[in-house]
């Protein structure tokens, strides 16, 4: 494992991973694991290019780590937070110092990368401010989307039929290893009967930073009588595109500007896709509103991957790749054992590393041979998919295919995995090592 390198930080934060009571509505709470007793955890914020130091103390009864989801960590592979790959896990009673450069700018997040700890609520927002934003806005709000799972997380084997592209159900017989059923949808840790308010003034422009921190659910988001002007995905900027709704998979982030032109109190609706779990909501609450909630209508224009066009120059990702790797995603009864999910027919940790070399333009062609969506996440890099830069992309179920291109310009051992936590935990991951 690489040796950590430390410098002179511009920002310093202190986190403590602890057992805490998590309040999700008035009078309703459950025992979870949190950072500093908060859920979501404390916001970590910096300006792009600054050096950030975070000291984490482990007060949990088991080992832990933190992954900085979205950070490139150029030259800082030891800070990536993957236990047994980039660091030794932090034992109970011990602490570890993470330090990294705040880049790229955008909406990111941090979370445990040990076992199923993400589904115990060990997560928080990581916001890197642009020095020169390409959009104008007056205020901002971060919305962290998650599932309400008040019981201890565990891998279950689904049975029966159904599930579809993003469902929780299996295919009958032995079924699929999967997440336990959630009991609802949380926005900033709140259930819909005690929603988070998002305050706006009429005539202003608010930037919503949307983070899907769920272990398994893909969500559809919309606001009655308001457009979402999508401006960023997974951090990097895109040409603004107006839609009524967008889908966001586990690990993905979107920024959207909303123009406050319809006074009142409007639900920000967050609906799990292809699942029976109840929806969540926050409230877009105008100044001078009476507090009466107006449901309103949500239009039918949904964001498509083809709508996203990066602001950054993508020339280095264009042309024929130096290396093309075909990866089949499968699991359950669809080309794999009933108790694991696989990439290329292999289940982690027994899977072979994916071999590439520094400086190569690499192309992954992913073919999904299972009925379920797989949000695939690459550590330490952004990749081009379509005409956008992302670090997480949903590969649709039922023979869906997605191709991504990246440049191997950040030597180290990097993790590539499905961000459906229970798929990753039962094998859908690979290591990508390459040296300088």
Domain count: the total is 3
Q: What is the architecture of the largest domain at the second tier of CATH?
A: Sandwich
Give the overall shape.
globular
Mean pLDDT: 93
**Class by SSE composition:** mainly beta
- List the total number of helices: 1
Specify the CATH class of the largest domain: Mainly Beta
The fraction of residues in strands falls at: 35-45%
* Largest beta-sheet details: 6 strands, mixed
Measure the end-to-end span.
15 Å
Strand order of the largest sheet: 12-9-14-19-16-17
Total DSSP E strands: 31
CATH superfamily of the largest domain: Cupredoxins -  blue copper proteins
CA radius of gyration is 21 Å
Kindly describe this structure.
The chain is an all-beta fold and 436 residues long. The protein folds into three domains: 11-131, Cupredoxins -  blue copper proteins (Immunoglobulin-like, Sandwich), CATH 2.60.40.420; 183-307, Cupredoxins -  blue copper proteins (Immunoglobulin-like, Sandwich), CATH 2.60.40.420; 315-434, Cupredoxins -  blue copper proteins (Immunoglobulin-like), CATH 2.60.40. The protein is 1% helix and 42% strand. It is built from one helix and 31 strands. The chain has one helix spanning 421-425; strands spanning 11-25, 28-35, 44-47, 51-58, 67-69, 95-101, 106-111, 123-129, 139-147, 156-157, 177-178, 185-187, 197-200, 205-212, 219-223, 228-233, 237-243, 245-248, 253-259, 265-272, 280-286, 323-331, 341-343, 361-368, 374-378, 383-385, 388-390, 392-395, 401-407, 412-418, 429-434. A hairpin with a 3-residue loop joins strand 16 and strand 17 (237-243).
